[in-house]
UniProtKB/TrEMBL annotation:
Residues 36-150, 162-288, 378-516 form the Plastocyanin-like domain. Gene3D superfamilies: Cupredoxins - blue copper proteins. It comes from Dillenia turbinata. SUPFAM superfamilies: Cupredoxins. Belongs to the multicopper oxidase family. GO terms for molecular function: copper ion binding; oxidoreductase activity. Keywords: Glycoprotein, Signal. This is Multicopper oxidase, C-terminal. Residues 1-26 form the signal peptide. The keyword Transmembrane does not apply. It comes from the Eukaryota.
Length: 547
């Protein structure tokens, strides 16, 4: 119903501006950034350590944009190793060239610069960027990215007094190179040393993180940029009204606690309706095995009378089920047809994937359906564009069903998908640890999370009406989650575990969505400035896509 209302409004708008049809459409605005990426020393939990800084800052600068803006970021790599930035949740329509992961781009080499250029097309909401190679994200280089609604588009809540980005995450004091060595040697990262909020641990902090004026309402955009743990977030003495999850306006329920899993972002409104004093932002780490182990205690300010977060999978799962898309709120949407009617589209393919942990050659590896992803020297997307994919990877490395055995093979893992297919992805988690999955290039509808194993009858319980279109989904221990989406964005897209050691050790893959048309209507050409590497370095450029 809401959909119909909204498209009527659109239509009226089109008719009103119909007389302007002959005027050349102005290009969407550009916003420019220059980033100098360097190492620097920080001591967020009292121990000096090497971090990755952007223009001297940790976390990096916020990108504040508006729907359809063109974002141009000239990145100077002054590290001693290759670098790529990825824009978590930004869909990069037709443009996996700007996605900045090892499967799509050759890295920016030390001492060189590269200019990302992408449009935040038809999106709104809360996102973040991060350095995608190796374990670099563990030591900084990340920052908030927000996309405001255009002025003409009503937002389903009053303008807040201010709008704050809150990047939370577990934190290690090891360098990213020593973490890499640890993982390469087949060991695990172990426990983090603490939790940071916007680069601070609360230890020895004198300045408040944020100030609120009495009676005013503020927006907080909370993203978990950590490596390993789900976090339970709360603001002492205040309730949080949820308004947006990862690019979708939600039904506005009030929460005392929010579980924020790895890679997820939530926007809440908080009104300063308590007596003026200092209040703490409280994060409690969910133990890896989630419900059955006590929450760990962390260094940081102790809060007298602070109630512990509710424990248990059931509590968290119930909270997930209260998240609903506000169908009547207007907002830019990348795929209006798919988004209003996702419940009535026939599924053309079901991809069932299960995560697993095992060893290869005596070393710990993580896998999806028995295959543990390894990056290739030639990015998968470039190999495909140049037509030399046979030398780099095999399509459909894994089946759409988890195998019956536990054996793991190491190779680049690529699923070959059909452009515009409507697919259902089932994430099965047979392990005892919680999982968090992210797909680049898309938002999806998480239609169900349940305990146990999935079977086709479970479709009867799907939320086919108002699931929140988003880009990350958690899967509880010994549980499954189902998401649905239309593969209408051509490109090579990373599907990954947001647990950074799992991803690093192979729990990720790529979905190749090829448009047979080789047309600019479906996909942009490789930018002339893109660095080349591997076997495509000296090959002649393929004929460009045309209209
Ligand atoms: C980047 O920062 C480093 C260290 O502060 C400095 O030496 C270098 O000149 C800067 N480069 C640019 C392009 O600003
Ligand atoms: C972000 O951009 C919006 C829209 O241009 C503007 O109103 C707002 O003040 C900006 N916020 C910050 C923190 O720059
Ligand atoms: C590198 O930076 C310079 C400006 O300092 C810019 O003119 C050039 O286009 C950049 N190169 C790339 C590949 O983005
Ligand atoms: C949904 O959005 C509409 C339109 O902005 C708003 O009036 C309504 O209060 C919102 N509904 C809920 C349940 O949050
Ligand atoms: C979906 O599938 C059903 C049953 O196979 C069929 O009757 C229906 O026409 C299909 N709908 C669309 C939109 O293709
Ligand atoms: C799994 O690995 C074992 C030991 O290497 C081997 O004997 C067995 O044949 C493998 N099974 C499959 C299905 O590949």
């Amino acid at each position: 119903m809401g959909g119909r209302k909204s498209s009527l409004a659109n239509l009226a708008w089109l008719m009103a501006t119909g007389t302007l049809m002959m005027v050349v459409r102005a290009e969407d605005p550009y916003i420019f950034f220059t980033w100098n990426v360097t190492y620097g020393t920080i001591s967020p939990i009292g121990v000096p350590q090497q971090a990755i800084l952007i223009n001297g800052q940790f976390p990096g600068p916020n990108i504040n944009s508006t729907t359809n803006n063109n974002i141009v970021v000239n990145v100077f790599n002054n590290l001693d190793e290759p670098l790529l930035f990825s824009w978590n949740g930004v869909q990069q329509r037709k443009n996996s060239w700007q996605d900045g992961v090892a499967g799509t781009n050759c890295p920016i080499m030390p001492g060189t610069n590269y200019t990302y250029h992408f449009q935040v097309k038809d999106q709104i909401g809360s996102y973040y960027y991060y350095p995608s190679l190796g374990m670099q994200k563990a030591v900084g280089g990340f920052g908030g990215l927000r996309i405001n609604s255009r002025l003409l588009i009503p937002v389903p809540f009053a303008d807040p007094e201010d709008d704050y980005t809150v990047l939370i995450g577990d934190w290690y004091t090891k360098s990213h190179t020593s973490m890499k060595k640890l993982l390469d040697s087949g060991r695990s990262l172990g426990r983090p040393a603490g939790v940071l909020i916007n680069g601070k641990s609360g230890k020895d902090e004198k300045e408040p993180l944020f100030t609120m004026k009495a009676g005013e309402t503020y927006r907080y955009r909370i993203c978990n940029v950590g490596l390993k743990n789900s976090l339970n977030f709360r603001i002492q003495g205040h309730t949080m009204k949820l308004v947006e999850i990862e690019g979708s306006h939600t039904v506005q329920n009030a929460y005392k606690w929010l579980d924020v899993h790895l890679g997820q972002c939530y926007s809440v409104l908080v009104t300063a309706d308590q007596s003026p004093k200092d209040y703490y932002m409280v994060h409690q780490v969910r133990s890896e095995r989630y419900g059955h182990h006590p929450l760990r205690k962390w260094k940081g300010p102790s809060i007298s009378g602070s109630p512990p977060a509710p424990e248990g999978v059931a509590w968290s799962l119930n909270q997930f089920r209260t998240f609903r898309w506000n169908l009547t709120a207007s907002a830019a949407r990348p795929n209006p047809q798919g988004s209003y009617h996702y419940g009535s589209i026939n599924i053309t393919r079901t991809i069932k994937i299960a995560n697993s942990a095992s060893t290869v050659g005596g070393k710990l590896r993580y896998a999806i359906n028995g295959a543990s992803h390894e990056d290739s020297d030639t990015p998968l997307k470039l190999a495909e564009y140049y037509g030399v994919q046979d030398k780099v990877f095999k399509y459909n490395t894994i089946a759409d069903e988890p195998p019956a055995h536990d054996n793991i093979t190491k190779q680049p893992v690529v699923i070959n998908a059909i452009f515009r297919n409507f697919v259902e992805i089932i994430f099965e988690n047979p392990e005892k640890s919680i999982q968090s999955w992210h797909l680049d290039g898309y938002s999806f509808f998480p239609v169900a999370i349940e305990a146990g194993t999935w079977s086709p009858e479970k479709r009867k319980n799907y939320n086919l009406l108002d699931a929140v279109s988003r880009y990350t989904i958690q899967v509880y221990p010994k549980s499954w989650a189902a998401v649905m989406l239309t593969l209408d964005n051509a490109g090579m897209w990373n599907l990954r575990s947001e647990s950074w050691e799992r991803r690093y050790l192979g729990q990720q893959l790529y979905i190749s969505v090829l448009s047979p048309a080789r047309s600019l209507r479906d996909e942009y050409n490789l930018p002339d400035t893109a660095p080349l590497c591997g076997i495509v370095k000296d090959l002649p450029k393929p004929a460009p896509y045309t209209i």
